[in-house]
Design brief:
Number of strands: 4
Number of helices: 4
Mean pLDDT: 93
Order of helices and strands: EHEHEHEH
Strand content: 25-35%
CATH class: Alpha Beta
Radius of gyration: 13 Å
């Protein structure tokens, strides 16, 4: 996603997300943001063509989240997938940051929240 402040990482996922996607796209993007910012915010959209995560992607997601547990300031998950949203709410309690979940139709609201002071 473009037009976001320097401390915000915006990612939109479509199709099946693999461990390779995490290793070549998401993890390097998180690491780059953390080199420039002590804490970061992330907006992660699972688009209308999103079909799921493979096992390696789920493991990489957990690893990157836990590796930088205290580095997250806010996370917005934008998804119409109820099961994923439920898991995110459950695991969100382990995060030290605020997590909000939005529907794809609420993407603009999620962007406003993720960048507000």
């Amino acid at each position: 996603m473009n037009d976001l402040p320097n401390n915000v990482l915006g990612v939109s996922a479509e199709g099946k997300i693999t461990g390779t996607d995490y290793e070549t796209v998401l993890i390097p993007a998180v690491e780059k943001k953390l080199k420039a910012n002590k804490k970061i915010r992330m907006i992660y959209q699972l688009g209308s063509n999103f079909t799921g995560f493979d096992l390696n992607a789920m493991l990489d997601d957990a690893k990157i989240g836990m590796k930088h547990l205290s580095s997250w300031e806010r996370i917005a998950l934008v998804s119409d997938h109820e099961l994923i949203n439920t898991f995110a709410k459950f695991f969100g309690y382990m995060l030290s940051c605020e997590l909000r979940i939005y529907k794809n139709s609420e993407l603009d609201e999620a962007k406003k929240w993720i960048i507000e002071k």
